[in-house]
Amino acid sequence: MQAQVFKAMGDPARLTLLSRLASGEGHTIGSLSENLGMSRQGARKQLQVLVAAELIELHKVGRETEVTINIGQLQQARAFIRELERQWDQRLSALKAFVEQTDPSSEADG
Amino acid sequence: MQAQVFKAMGDPARLTLLSRLASGEGHTIGSLSENLGMSRQGARKQLQVLVAAELIELHKVGRETEVTINIGQLQQARAFIRELERQWDQRLSALKAFVEQTDPSSEADG
DNA sequence: ACAATATGCAACCTAATGGTTGCATATAGC
DNA sequence: GCTATATGCAACCATTAGGTTGCATATTGT
After folding, report:
1. Matching InterPro entries, A to Z (chains A, B) (predicted)?
2. Which of A3, A9, A94, B47 has the most other CB atoms within 10 Å of its CB?
3. Is residue A9 one of the residues assigned to a domain?
4. What residues 4-33 of chain A have any CB closer than 8 A to a CB of chain B?
């Protein structure tokens, strides 16, 4: 569900992780876990939340694990928000049209 | 912070509320609280979370309370995601340019 | 083989979340 | 004024989240 993606994004530490990944600062669990204001295990848990929401993917390479961001999931989240905005705009348009139809004075000059 | 907005959107019931508001189904606390699969008080709590994230606003009118969606906050959330995507695209472009510069064979035909 | 590095797994704790119920209060309509 | 409606407020409860610590394990480099 969409909610899970937003929920995963609903935490400062996790947004920081996504931001780091998007801008290319570090791409292993270890490097990403630095300077997050929490232990490595704490950071690992946050990464797991992002994995569960399919916002990132983990791939083991030797003894380290590469982390890659899933841009597609971000795009879907953005599309969902855009759809809400679209519905709202449509509703406003419909309301405006209705008002102009029932109250002709509103479409004439003031 | 941005995280709070995403966090507020990270729940099915709250997404339903936002969707109803955007599409114009109901605009009072009472009407919005119907068919959410929880009690009125439960729904009220979820609405309060959206208020705290400034995704909606409440205005008392007589004995009922009007609920309006704050499209601006949705736009900001969307802009934040778009920015992440932009950074990622830039990173990819930079990487591509770097590879092409250091390894000229990659820009020639195969 | 051994030490260092990168990570995983699990138990544990506290605070926050999501939901309930019960009761109080203000407005509307007859 | 009385009744119904729309809402608020607070206590309570179970589950989840966010974070810690301790220990196990797999690679890597010498």
Report:
1. ArsR-like_HTH, HTH_ArsR_DNA-bd_dom, WH-like_DNA-bd_sf, WH_DNA-bd_sf
2. A9
3. yes
4. 4-12, 14-15, 18-19, 21-24
